[in-house]
Specification:
- The protein is an all-alpha fold and 480 residues long.
- It has helices spanning 23-42, 51-62, 83-90, 95-124, 128-140, 142-148, 154-172, 179-193, 202-216, 221-250, 271-275, 295-304, 326-334, 346-383, 389-414, 432-450, 452-469; strands spanning 16-17, 20-21, 315-317, 322-324, 342-344.
- A three-stranded antiparallel sheet has the order 4-3-5.
- A hairpin with a 2-residue loop joins β1 (16-17) and β2 (20-21).
- α4 packs antiparallel against α5 (128-140).
- It is globular, with a radius of gyration of 22 Å.
- The chain starts with 15 loop residues before the first strand and ends in an 11-residue tail after the last helix.
């Protein structure tokens, strides 16, 4: 490792197209982060998945200690996402202001993530259309904006996973690796581990990329492999301490707030988990409890709508003048509570969410095709290593996506909840959506080179998806 070496010139990977700002890229960048900002200023931070437990985490961290199970059921979550609100709370701000500060901090996380998406897209291709396409596809997905408006670790994990991949691609593309690059990669890996457990999915992808590059250029193998080994050790030192703490405190570095199955077996989940198709409600009423514990339907409905009722489906307790969401809203509706005491848009919004799911099949298919092409390219890179920047970027994005899906699948099988399936949330997979968007942007550019008519048709369909789904980019739970 050379402490004085300088990195090679980058491909175009910014808001510019050559010497000038690209107005479409700037507009899409502003759109994505502008919507995140609006939601950060308006969404009630006490509304979200397990929101009370996340708030309890902030209170405990503000006391200067990590939480235990007795403090919050989110005790197993790494602390980085809670540092900002805990510091604000400890500095004397009220809880409401501290929680709002947490959401505003996540705007900065989104800015960093979208800039990294542009850099990753630039490593796939110097063509500005790939960067435009990546941002446009990211702007389509309500799950991105919903996740960034919740007080959770996934936004940080998504950002640091993308940063790890981009930094690794640059580092492994050098003939002599500067020490600062290795230290930086280790630090980013540590931050990913301290954001959410899913952040670990980036580390095997980087290791495999290093092996692939070493095989492609044997003369540089020692330099590159040494760099990755050192960076991995630094990442484990920077982030591994929390998992050691979990092991000492809870008996497992992979502790969770419910008991796991005795062993991994696909039979831990019932057949409808794998094969459920939505009970006829996927395109008409995709809202809880319409199709409990059905993996595909719930993921689709959460990525493009609001199956669990924390975002677009709202309830309001008229007597207490407070929001009612999630399981409480479901329970009160099932109990037949009258409209005089509970206001809700549950019935009114159902058909709209169904149409959103139907239209969402188009970008979902595009994402799957892009992933399939990426998988084919990754397999080719493993069997016939070539030190090609395009193939390397495709390789590491694809392997990270697949690794995240495999890890999440293991989690769902090991922690089944057959009557509900409340761990089926697209937010848990947030880190793959920016990576999918980059692969999708490259696919759209490839499609344009093959058939302009097919490309125009795809763009027109995606435009319809965006226009129809635009209201789903904004929270209905305003206040707090």
């Amino acid at each position: 490792m050379d402490a004085s070496a300088s990195p090679p010139p980058r491909r175009a990977a910014s808001l510019r197209d050559g010497e000038r700002l690209d107005r479409w890229t700037v507009a899409l960048f502003a759109l994505v982060n502008g919507v995140v900002l609006v939601n950060a200023l308006r969404h009630d931070p006490t509304i979200g998945y397990d929101a009370d437990s996340h708030v309890a985490y902030v209170r405990t961290l503000a006391e200067g200690r990590l939480p235990t199970f007795w403090d919050t059921t989110e005790f197993f979550s790494p602390p980085l996402p809670y540092v900002v609100p805990a510091l604000l709370l400890r500095a004397g701000l009220g809880e409401a202001a501290a929680l709002r500060g947490a959401l505003i901090a996540q705007v900065a996380v989104s800015v960093a993530l979208t800039l990294t998406v542009l850099r990753l897209a630039g490593r796939l291709s110097a063509h500005i259309a790939v960067r435009r396409g990546a941002l446009a596809l990211l702007a389509l997905a309500p799950v991105y904006f919903k996740s960034f408006a919740f007080l959770r670790g996934e936004p940080y994990a998504a950002c640091f996973v993308a940063l790890v991949l981009e930094h690794a691609l640059g580092t492994l593309g050098m003939s002599r690796v500067p020490l600062r690059r290795v230290v930086g990669l280790g630090a980013l890996g540590g931050f990913a581990l301290l954001s959410r457990q899913w952040g670990a999915a980036a580390l095997p992808a980087v290791a495999l990329l290093a092996l692939q590059r070493a095989r492609a250029e044997p003369a540089l193998a020692r330099e590159r492999l040494t760099s990755i080994v050192v960076a991995s050790i630094l990442a484990l030192q920077a982030g591994g301490w929390f998992y050691a703490y979990l092991h000492l405190r809870s008996g497992s570095a992979m502790a969770f707030n419910r008991a796991h199955a005795e062993s991994f077996s696909l039979t831990n989940q019932p057949p409808e988990f794998y094969a459920g198709a939505g009970n006829g409600r996927l395109f008409s009423d995709p809202v809880r409890p319409g199709f409990p514990n059905q993996l595909g339907p719930i993921l689709l409905s959460e990525a493009w709508g609001d199956y669990w009722c924390y975002w677009a489906v709202w309830g309001r307790d008229l007597a207490a003048d407070r929001w009612v969401s999630g399981p409480e809203l479901e329970g009160r509706l099932l109990a037949g509570e009258p409209a005089t005491s509970l206001a809700t848009n549950r019935a009114a919004v159902a058909a709209y969410l169904g149409r959103a799911n139907l239209l969402a099949l188009a970008p979902t298919v595009l994402a799957l095709v892009a992933l399939a092409l990426g998988t084919r390219s990754a397999l080719a890179a493993l069997t016939h290593p070539v030190d090609d920047p395009d193939r390397g970027a495709t390789f590491v994005l694809t392997v990270t996506i697949l690794g995240t899906l495999v890890g999440y699948g293991w989690f769902l099988v090991m922690y089944p909840n057959p009557g509900k399936g409340d761990t089926i949330k697209a937010t848990y997979l947030l880190q793959i959506f920016p990576l999918w968007a980059v692969l999708g942007g490259a696919f759209l550019e490839r499609l344009r080179s093959l058939s302009r008519a097919a490309w125009l048709t795809a763009v027109a369909i995606l435009a319809v998806v965006f226009v129809h789904g635009a209201p789903l980019l904004f929270s209905r739970y305003v206040g707090g």
